Give the backbone structure.
Amino acid sequence: MRIHIATDHAGLEFSDDLRQHLSSAGHEVIDHGPTSYDALDDYPSFCINAALAVVADQAAGIECLGVVFGGSGNGEQIAANKVAGARAALVWNESTALLARQHNDANVISIGARQHTVDEAKHFIDVFIAEPFSGEERHARRIAQLGEFETTGSIAGHEIQR
C-alpha cells in the first residue's frame, strides 16, 4: 500500500522512524515534508499536500492512506480535512484508529507527536492500515452525506441551518 506522510517540526523525528517502519512492512512511503528541522515551519501545506495525494491516488484506484502528525495532531487534522475527499481522523489510541477505518472510512489519520511515543504511533498506524471499512449501510450513508455536503452545501432530506 502507498502511504503518504507529512508532519511539522514537532513530528520530524517521528517521520524517519515511521518511514523505515512502514517501508520494512512493505509499504511505499511518500513523504510530503518537511525534510529538515525548522521550528518556525508551517504544517498546513505539508499536510494538505499529503491529503491531496491520498485523494488523487484513491481516485486513480491506487490503494493508499495518509498519516499526518505534529505536536498535538489537531492542526494537521484540520489542514488535511480542508481537502475535498479527505476524511482525516485524530487518533489517540487503538480504538480511535480502528473506528476511524471501520465507521468513518478515514483515509488520513493525524497523531500528536508530543502526545505519544514513536512505538505507540507505529501501533496506531499499523492498526489503521490493517483495518478495513466495515461497509455497514449506516456508516456508508453518513459518509455519503458528508461528501454530499462537501460538494453541494446541503444534505438531501436533512435541514442544514445557515
